[in-house]
Q: What sequence folds into this?
């Protein structure tokens, strides 16, 4: 890919594809109940960290060795525990402005996912599948982080497309004006509607009618309204915060 091949349309197309994976990841996580022991800091006794956090640190360390974070689109939740890659690096194209690329909302994504989102689409119960549960959490969180931190690329392209619009607000450190400049309400509305529809289509329970064994009472594996709320209340606002944070550092 050459520099000029990245456009606002190509980025929006990438965000749209990422929606599929995010919806499927939620559906996969919804197969397990909440499983609170996985999040209880006392569950592992003297490790003084939760089962889920330890699983993330160790998996990210292993994935880092195999090069996952060589790709500038991927960010670990626990960078202090990652390890250098084993293989010689591929030269990824990186269009980001280096001082701005470090904008990071991983902590907020983590807190939102565990405190706000999980209780909305998992049953309050425990089935002992703690490894499978946190492995599904990892998939969800990696997908959400990638999507939200894509805001860096979106901001870079918006800046390149019209630097004259952004430069005065960046120089004035005016976050509010930057937020207005980068917001496209009709795009956001379409995203939320599409995610609702994807959750309806991808997550419908399939029943064959009264002559067959009834497989499920509920209509959807994940309520479409929860997927839409995830985007409306968290994914889109966090993406925009990443965009603002990136732009504020774009002239450093
Ligand atoms: C990502 C963009 O920037 C903003 C954030 C959006 C989102 O997170 O989906 C959508 C529209 C914009 O308000 C974009 O313009 O596509």
A:
């Amino acid at each position: 890919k050459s520099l000029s091949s990245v456009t606002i349309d190509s980025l929006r197309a990438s965000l749209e594809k990422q929606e599929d994976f995010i919806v499927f990841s939620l559906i996969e996580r919804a197969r397990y109940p909440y499983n609170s022991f996985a999040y209880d800091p006392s569950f592992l006794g003297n490790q003084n960290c939760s089962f889920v956090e330890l699983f993330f640190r160790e998996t990210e360390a292993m994935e880092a060795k195999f090069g996952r974070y060589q790709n500038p689109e991927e960010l670990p939740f626990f960078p202090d525990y990652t390890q250098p890659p084993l293989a010689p690096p591929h030269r990824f194209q990186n269009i980001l402005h280096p001082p701005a690329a470090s904008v990071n909302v991983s902590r907020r994504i983590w807190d939102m996912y565990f405190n706000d989102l999980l209780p909305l689409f998992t049953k309050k119960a425990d089935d002992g599948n703690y490894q499978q549960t946190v492995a599904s959490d990892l998939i969800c969180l990696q997908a959400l982080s990638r999507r939200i931190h894509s805001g860096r690329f979106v901001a870079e392209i918006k800046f390149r497309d019209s630097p004259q619009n952004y430069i005065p607000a960046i120089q004035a450190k005016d976050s509010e004006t930057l937020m207005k400049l980068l917001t496209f309400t009709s795009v956001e509305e379409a995203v939320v509607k599409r995610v609702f529809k994807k959750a309806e289509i991808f997550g419908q329970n399939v029943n064959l009618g009264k002559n067959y064994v009834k497989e499920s009472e509920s209509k959807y594996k994940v309520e479409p309204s929860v997927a839409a709320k995830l985007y409306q209340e968290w994914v889109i606002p966090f993406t925009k915060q990443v965009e603002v944070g990136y732009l504020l550092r774009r002239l450093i």
Observations:
- The pocket of ISJ is lined by residues 12, 154, 182-184, 187-188, 191, 236, 239-240 (CB under 6 Å).
- Residues 112 and 134 are 16 Å apart (CA to CA).
- Residues 3-248 form a domain with the Chorismate Mutase, subunit A fold (CATH 1.10.590.10).
